[in-house]
């Protein structure tokens, strides 16, 4: 294991997982990163480009993306895919994505969506001139971006819906197109709601294939599908029946008190008795349904249903004959944080995934602790759990029964009900300051310790980075481990009180409510700034 030359990761990797992959103790990895100017903690993420540079520089290990592992085309289970097409329908909110799919499939799914806004992923299939076409209907809100990107990664063609009646934002649309093109996926711009303008029609200047359509009347829909088939026929796509197989969870929700999970298998085969391996758990499949019939074996691509299994709030999985062995690090939260516990119940898997994606991507989180997130209606066990562990109950897309609501009120449990995921995210951002990030503005190194009266100690420090302001928050690190968060009580240089000390200046510092620092400890001064990612 010490001669590791290559590793394969996703777009980002946890520090504890990277330690396992390169076979280095976690403490050594964190120290090596620190010596190369990168400060991280056990549960922090590093992105692919950073991992690639660091591993090559420090350990001479090459890093590759998992998705770029190529399969040899001469494998006897790899056949050219000529009659099956994967199409993703995406675009901004209210531009007509679901309406287009409804017209193609002759259904009416839009009226069942909360606020007529897509909050979940759906997959459908239909036949058109001997081609089997899978359509993926994706949410338009930016909160679902990770879900969208995962689904795009398996698509052949994107129908990117633009509303003709809106003011066309060329820059925004072209930026989105560039992102799609990096995935090597063909794009058709579908200019929807064209029927509303009988006079004064405008020409839209895009270099990509574009078709003017009306999802409401069906104008040019047949042309759209024909064009997608012509584009697909020029591609070289393959049906891959090799193991391990791969798939995605499309969605989970309760229907008539039965938890139904829709999965899309896009690689390999699936048989009863196989395991679906997720990031930290394996689930054995004893029964699944295709077209509402129990089936024992299927080949990809295929849509299957599984009943009454609570899957993890993840999307991608691998299929294998054996249970996967996991290396799981220990999650922790700093004792200096004052967290509020949340117990969240959602109506669908996609809602849960998007909430957890928001939560895991927070750069600053000193308030929110999601202790549990699951799919389905609230019950007595959920309430007892929240009572025992002092949790606030959050529901999204779920109605709490009057009997349970009375029990919640009697036990004085706090609760919130939301219809939409973005309403919950706005609540977190506004009330728990999740739209802010820390910005380090200065660092001090403790060089000496001086007594000050019976109880206090003065830290003799030197500014080694930026400047330190008396008003700013501070963190103290001992051997790279956070040991305190708080405020500075006073800064002095030669008995003169200072508010700011700058690079290379030496000073004496007293810390409010903390004395347990030593020579060599680092004091980091920081401020809070708004994170543009969460300002909409």
TrEMBL record:
- Which residue intervals define the domain Tr-type G in the entry? 85-203
A GO molecular function term, named singly, is: translation initiation factor activity
- Any Gene Ontology CC annotation: cytoplasm
Read off the InterPro entries from this record: P-loop_NTPase (IPR027417), T_Tr_GTP-bd_dom (IPR000795), TIF_IF2 (IPR015760), TIF_IF2_dom3_sf (IPR036925), Transl_B-barrel_sf (IPR009000)
Leader sequence segment: none
Pfam families from the entry?
A: GTP_EFTU
Presence of keyword Nucleotide-binding: yes
Highest taxon listed in the record's lineage: Bacteria
Q: Which keywords has UniProt assigned to this entry?
A: GTP-binding, Initiation factor, Nucleotide-binding, Protein biosynthesis
Q: What is this protein called?
A: Putative translation initiation factor IF-2
Source organism of the structure: Carsonella ruddii (strain PV)
Source taxonomy? Bacteria, Pseudomonadati, Pseudomonadota, Gammaproteobacteria, Oceanospirillales
């Amino acid at each position: 294991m010490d001669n590791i030359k290559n590793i394969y990761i996703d777009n980002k990797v946890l520090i504890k997982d990277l330690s396992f992959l390169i076979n280095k103790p976690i403490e050594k990895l964190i120290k090596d990163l620190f010596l190369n100017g990168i400060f991280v903690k056990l549960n922090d993420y590093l992105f692919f480009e950073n991992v690639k540079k660091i591993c090559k520089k420090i350990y001479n290990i090459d890093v590759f993306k998992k998705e770029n592992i190529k399969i040899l085309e001469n494998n006897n289970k790899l056949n050219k895919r000529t009659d099956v097409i994967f199409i993703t329908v995406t675009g901004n909110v209210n531009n007509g994505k679901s309406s287009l799919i409804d017209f193609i499939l002759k259904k009416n799914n839009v009226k069942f969506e909360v606020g007529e806004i897509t909050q979940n992923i759906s997959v459908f299939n239909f036949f058109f001139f001997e081609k089997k076409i899978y359509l993926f209907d994706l949410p338009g809100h930016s909160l679902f971006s990770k879900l969208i990107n995962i689904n795009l990664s398996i698509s052949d063609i994107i129908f990117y819906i633009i509303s003709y009646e809106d003011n066309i934002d060329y820059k925004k649309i072209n930026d989105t197109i560039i992102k799609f093109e990096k995935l090597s996926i063909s794009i058709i711009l579908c200019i929807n709601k064209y029927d509303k303008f009988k006079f004064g029609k405008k020409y839209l200047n895009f270099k990509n294939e574009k078709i003017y359509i009306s999802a409401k009347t069906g104008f040019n829909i047949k042309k759209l599908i024909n064009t997608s088939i012509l584009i697909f026929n020029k591609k070289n796509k393959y049906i891959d029946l090799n193991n391990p197989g791969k798939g995605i969870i499309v969605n989970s929700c309760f229907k008539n008190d039965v938890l139904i999970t829709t999965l899309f298998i896009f690689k390999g085969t699936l048989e009863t008795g196989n395991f679906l391996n997720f990031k930290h758990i394996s689930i054995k499949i004893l029964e699944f349904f295709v077209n509402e019939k129990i089936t024992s074996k299927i080949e990809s691509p295929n849509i299957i249903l599984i009943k009454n299994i609570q899957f993890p709030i993840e999307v991608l999985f691998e299929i294998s004959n054996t249970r996967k062995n996991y290396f799981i690090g220990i999650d922790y939260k700093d004792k200096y944080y004052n967290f509020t516990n949340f117990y969240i119940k959602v109506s669908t898997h996609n809602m849960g995934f998007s909430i957890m994606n928001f939560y895991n991507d927070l750069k600053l989180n000193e308030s929110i602790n999601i202790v549990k997130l699951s799919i389905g209606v609230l019950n007595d066990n959920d309430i007892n759990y929240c009572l025992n562990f002092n949790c606030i109950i959050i529901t999204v897309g779920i109605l709490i029964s009057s009997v349970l609501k009375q029990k919640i009120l009697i036990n004085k449990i706090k609760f919130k009900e939301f219809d939409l995921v973005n309403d919950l995210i706005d609540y977190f951002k506004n009330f728990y300051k999740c739209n802010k990030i820390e910005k380090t503005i200065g660092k001090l190194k403790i060089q000496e310790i001086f007594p000050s009266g019976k109880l206090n100690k003065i830290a003799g420090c030197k500014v080694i980075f930026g400047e330190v302001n008396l008003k700013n928050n501070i963190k103290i690190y001992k051997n790279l481990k956070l040991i305190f968060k708080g405020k500075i009580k006073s800064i002095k240089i030669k008995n003169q009180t200072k508010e700011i000390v700058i690079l290379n200046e030496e000073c004496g510092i007293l810390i409010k409510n903390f004395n347990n620092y030593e020579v060599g400890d680092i004091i980091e001064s920081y401020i809070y700034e708004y994170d543009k990612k969460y300002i909409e």
